[in-house]
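Hey, resending since the last one bounced:
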Amino acid sequence: TGLDRITNANDITLSLESTYREVGASKDDKDLLSMKIAQTFYTDDEVVSDTANTNYETRKSYSDIAASIDMSINKFTLSSAVQFNPDQSKIVKKENTISYSPSSRKFISLSFIDEGTKETEKFYGAYPITDSVHIFGGIDKTTSTGVTNAETTGLAYESCCWAFRLAHFKQDNSSGGYNYSTGMELVLTGLGSTSSPLKDRIENRIPGYTAKLR
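The structure tokens again:
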């Protein structure tokens, strides 16, 4: 409550989750099978608005139903998630992902998202060229319009005494063009590092990639 209220309140979310893990699996091991379903119920019929010049907007008393299933086989992971609209009795969004991930320095992930009027594809990966050098990259593209939302490419070198990384970013600026930027990071073992925000930016752009230089 109050004039400073900037988020919605009085919401109740109910969910059901079932997870199967291999006996003796460590906390870092992935679940063999995971199934989830959830829905949110709203006791307030007004919601904080994101429409200009509007303080509040009305909404229905419940959200769409979200459900997902994930399955892991060795280093492969298959995931499928859907968003079901109970009023329309149809799936309004679905996402399928397949990934192969032996390590954070060697993996590939492909996602396909269908929202009815909008289709998106996301590709992420990293590959070791040598024991010391690896490359990484990611692309997020709306295939229904041909617009590249975000693109990241980079190269990293790691040794016992020092490490170096170079990353290039391309971002859609929503006005028919793109913003470009390039960052680099140098780490001297036991002494310190430069450009630490680069790590978080890369990890946000490339899910599954651990950007901390060794």
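The two ends are 47 Å apart (CA to CA).

Sorry for the duplicate.
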